[in-house]
Amino acid sequence: MHLAYLGAANNTARSLAHLVIGTPGMRLDVYCPEDNGFPPEELEALNARRPDGDPIRQRHQLPRRPDPVDAVYTTRWQSMGVPHGDPGWEQRFAPFRITRATMASFSGATDAVFLHDLPAVRGQEVESDVLDGPLSLVRQQARHKASAAAAALAWVLAAPAPAR
What we know:
The chain has 164 residues and is an alpha/beta fold. It has helices spanning 11-21, 40-48, 89-93, 100-106, 128-131, 138-158, and strands at 2-6, 27-31, 56-59, 71-74, 113-116.
């Protein structure tokens, strides 16, 4: 499996990176603006954990013809309720917006699916026709996320109270 992640190297990108280094044969290409990616030493440390080469690559611009991937992933570009400190941030991120053309450029022999952990900002990190399109798996992701949260809550509520 080969994933492309577009956006800042945040918690989602780090979770994907740890998934990739723990899964033989899986690869991750991270595309992000300068100064919004993995620091070089972190990227090097992640790649060093897998003996079969560098499964995680990072680029600061989208190539005209990126390597085909199985899935294109993004997440919110701005933390909820936290204003972005850089007034020009949205312009720097704009080339990494997921559009139908972006999806087509990453598709190879089969169409790449779209993933987003929600909530999404339509027109910012992703266009509506991709988010709601036939290759989007965000509804299934949301359903699984809700099930996982419910299971975690049930487990916590069923745990015996700690002794005082």
